Each structure stands twice: as C-alpha cells, then as structure tokens.
C-alpha cells in the first residue's frame, strides 16, 4: 500500500483536505462498491481499532488529522480504551442536494472507567438509499453497512472536563493536558527540595 505517513502517495506540495461530500462520494462509495480508487491513498485498517496516538504511519495523515477505512463494528475497544459515540449525527448532502451520507461523532475514552480525552473521530457512513444522482454506476455488490471512513483528530488545547465539574474559581480558561497534569502534581512537588 505504500507509505501512508505524512502525505500518502500525493506529490510534494499537495495537501489532503477533502470536503465531507468528497469523502463520501469519491472515497467511501468507491471502497464500498469495490471500485478502484484513484489515487488509492486511504488505507484499510480492517476490524482492529487503534488507539488514536498509534495511527501515525498506519493511517493517511494530513496535518493533525488521520484518515482510514474500517469495517463497521458494534464496539470499538482499543488496547487502552474505547471510542464512545456521541449523540451527534449530521447528514451529508451532494452538491445536487441529495442525501448521500451521514457523519457520526465519537470521543476517545481511556480505561474501563471511560475518562474522556481530547481525541475525536468522525465516522462517515453511506446512506441506505442507492446513491442516485451520482455519476457512479450502480453496483449490486454495494454494501452500505460494511465500510466506514474515519477521520481522527485531537482537539487542540483542551482536555475534556468531566460533566458537572464546576468550580468557583473557573475563569473560563481551558488548560492543556500537560498543564492539568502538572497542577495535579503540585502537591507532590511541595515535598521535594531542589538544590540551590
């Protein structure tokens, strides 16, 4: 499949920045209908879900986003956590106004207790309807429920706070994950003496 690291099989200077419609019609539809993709740059990571920080070198990366195909799974449990679906779905329409897909949102949670992180996933699904109005030939083998296209990214500058975690000294400023970790270690640092 080649190196899908930084820019896949794209020539130097090109950036992979497709719209939702392009992801559904030009990539996911071709994958589901077993049509050859041109260029074939998004890898298939199959059934095994990966921790988001382990996607580098496995998925197509573009900036701080990673793209890959996966087969639809009931539960997406990884080595260190799981992807939790959010109750947010958006329809994807073609430029002709036809509904061609659906975008679902998930958040990555660490551990069995499900501590939410700043890692997000957008899953792209094909509609049940035959993609009428598109220029693609209908394919009897098209299985709209077998394949999804995933876009994974880390929200910058924030760790998700637990629901209901409000404090009186909150000034609306979000702390980075590292800032929160260092602040939690602050009590431990008081006991450490440093040389002058």
From TrEMBL:
Does the record bear Disulfide bond in its keywords?
no
Q: Would the keyword Metal-binding be found if you checked this record's keyword annotation? A: no
Query: GO molecular function terms here?
Result: DNA binding
Q: Which UniProt keywords apply?
A: DNA-binding, Nucleus, Transcription, Transcription regulation
Instruction: Write one Pfam family the protein is assigned to.
Output: NAM
Biological process (GO), any one = system development
Question: What InterPro entries does the entry give?
Answer: NAC-dom, NAC_dom_sf
What protein is this chain from? Answer: NAC domain-containing protein
Q: Which organism is it from?
A: Populus tomentosa (Chinese white poplar)
């Amino acid at each position: 499949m080649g190196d899908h690291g930084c820019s896949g099989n794209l020539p130097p200077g090109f950036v992979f920045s497709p719209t939702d419609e392009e992801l559904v019609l030009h990539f996911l539809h071709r994958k589901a209908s077993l049509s050859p993709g041109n260029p074939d740059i998004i890898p298939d990571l199959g059934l095994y879900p990966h921790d988001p920080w382990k996607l580098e070198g496995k998925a197509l990366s573009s900036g701080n986003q990673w793209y890959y195909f996966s087969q639809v799974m009931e539960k997406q449990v990884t080595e260190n956590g799981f992807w939790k679906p959010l109750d947010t779905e958006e329809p994807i329409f073609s430029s002709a106004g036809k509904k061609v897909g659906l975008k679902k949102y998930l958040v990555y949670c660490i551990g069995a207790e499900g501590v939410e992180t700043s890692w997000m996933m957008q899953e792209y699904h094909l509609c049940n309807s035959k993609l009428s109005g598109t220029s693609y030939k209908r394919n009897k083998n098209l299985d709209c429920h077998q394949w999804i296209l995933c876009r994974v990214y880390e929200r910058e500058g924030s760790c998700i706070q637990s629901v209901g975690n409000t404090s009186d000294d909150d000034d609306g400023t979000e702390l980075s994950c590292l800032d929160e970790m260092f602040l939690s270690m602050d009590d431990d640092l008081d006991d450490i003496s440093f040389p002058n």
